[in-house]
Design a protein that fits this description.
alpha/beta; single chain; 17 helices; 3-stranded antiparallel sheet; Rossmann fold; about 50% helix; 8-stranded mixed sheet; flat; 3 domains
Length: about 475
């Protein structure tokens, strides 16, 4: 699926651009007014996000290649319905030229047996064979067990051969086994057809591919079921049969549901907290570099991490490179002097030691060392690696909720394939997404979180720019 943004002075012109670039079957995902000026006149504009499947786009491109320049102008002016008919005709002709003839079955469609009916037929046949064999064996057993009636005036007594007696006992044992097998067979549910993914949760067969796709990206099962059940209620049967249409609806739903921080929402104090090894220090350095180089802000770097060996020295080096103040805070009382000394700085970025917060001692220490919540505000960023499992991330985040978290930052996004974690974790804790770490470069591999980027990561539409070569 191709997702693309279009900006134009009016909605009519935006739709015309979508029609020219993506074709008549493009689906509009979202539309919003842009306050900034557009063009030299400084008029307001609209921003429209549209999507189209890869196959539909290829059909459009194939059809347009058959037109010369004069016909292309006429083609762009005809209604979308006529364009669609023209594209389908060109595609069918191309298929007839290049594809081998398709062998058509001689059995009418209505007479082709369903897979489920065949399985039930085989199941019933097997059950009949077993029952027939057991009944036959039972009759034989009854005949063997039947006591011979005494004969009148008979002088000859028939004695069984020991070998025959042994055969009879063996046959009786086999009969008992068959009876036990039949009783167990009747207790087992007689459905041998495996259900499609999500069937046990009420997801229709048409959405099974979407179910598997979302689960593979790391979206939790609860979120997948919630999304697809809502899709079933919102889309009609014909729409559910079109994977591209379903994907577009899911993308629109994610755009509506996911929450992100506002682009300019950066407070005076920025605290970076989270477990050890998730990239807090690297994220702090990337944001510091971005604020200094890209936004020309005055900042200061503060560390409260006096536990990790070399942590303060590492940040001190980065502070020298950026030519910004650097301070080590060892006790809560130090914040009074820091706040006074750095009163003229736009932003103060504070690094904290990685903690699991398994004890009250660790929690109380972190709360006491938090930077002051001044008039210009404070943000407490929870830094989480995208390589973490949802279970581990949930357990750890629950311990940090009392700290007063304001948003989420995800690191190692370029190394993970389970980007559904970003959406599911945000939905569970209702904390907006702040930014993403997409590589090791400073500050290039740092980007502010956007709703479109979350859709991009889940559907894997584009490659990460910060991905390692």
């Amino acid at each position: 699926m191709q997702v693309k943004k279009f900006e134009a002075p009016t909605m009519k012109e935006a739709i015309k651009m979508i029609k020219n670039q993506l074709g008549p079957e493009a689906i509009i995902l979202s539309a919003k007014d842009i306050n900034k000026g557009f063009g030299l006149a400084g008029q307001k504009s609209v921003e429209v996000t549209a999507a189209v499947s890869e196959m539909t786009l290829r059909k459009k491109q194939l059809a347009e290649r058959t037109l010369n320049e004069s016909y292309k102008v006429k083609y762009s002016q005809i209604p979308a319905s006529q364009q669609k008919q023209f594209i389908e005709k060109v595609f069918e002709k191309n298929q007839a030229k290049h594809l081998p003839p398709t062998k058509i079955t001689t059995v009418p469609y209505i007479e082709i047996p369903d897979v489920e009916d065949e399985a039930k037929q085989e199941e019933n046949t097997a059950a009949k064979r077993i029952k027939s064999a057991v009944l036959e064996a039972s009759r034989l057993a009854d005949f063997i067990d039947e006591k011979p009636k005494p004969k009148v005036n008979t002088t000859k007594v028939i004695k069984h051969n020991p070998q025959d007696q042994q055969k009879i006992l063996s046959m009786q044992a086999e009969i008992n086994k068959l009876k036990a097998l039949l009783s167990q067979f009747q207790k087992v549910p007689q459905s041998f057809i495996s259900m499609h993914p999500g069937a046990s949760e009420g997801i229709s067969y048409e959405l099974s591919s979407s179910y598997e796709k979302l689960r593979k990206t790391g979206v939790t099962e609860d979120d997948v079921i919630k999304i697809l059940k809502l899709a079933q209620r919102s889309l009609n049967k014909e729409q559910l049969k079109k994977p591209a249409y379903v994907d577009a609806w899911i993308a629109k739903h994610i755009l509506d549901e996911v929450k992100v921080c506002l682009p300019k929402e950066i407070k005076k104090y920025n605290a970076f907290v989270g477990p050890s090894g998730h990239g807090k220090t690297s994220t702090l350095v990337k944001l510091a570099s971005h604020l200094v180089i890209c936004e020309n802000k005055s900042i200061a770097i503060v560390t409260c991490d006096t536990y990790k060996v070399g942590a303060s020295e590492q940040l001190k080096i980065y502070a020298r490179i950026l030519n910004v103040p650097f301070v080590v805070v060892r006790k809560p009382e130090d914040w009074v002097h820091v706040d006074k000394a750095l009163s003229g700085v736009d932003h103060i970025l504070v690094d904290y030691p990685g903690m699991g917060l398994r004890t009250d001692i660790e929690r109380n220490y972190l709360l006491s060392m938090l930077s002051p919540n001044s008039e210009k505000g404070r943000q407490v960023h929870y830094v989480c690696s995208a390589l973490t499992t949802f279970t581990d991330a949930t357990e750890m985040l629950n311990r940090y909720l009392d700290i007063g978290l304001t948003d989420l930052i995800f690191t190692s996004v370029d190394e993970s394939t389970q980007h559904g974690l970003i959406f599911s974790l945000q939905q569970k804790f209702k904390l907006p997404l702040h930014s993403f770490g997409i590589g090791p470069k400073v500050p290039e591999d740092f980007e502010a979180a956007t709703k479109e980027r979350v859709v991009d990561l889940i559907f894997k539409l584009t490659k990460l720019q910060g991905k390692r070569s």
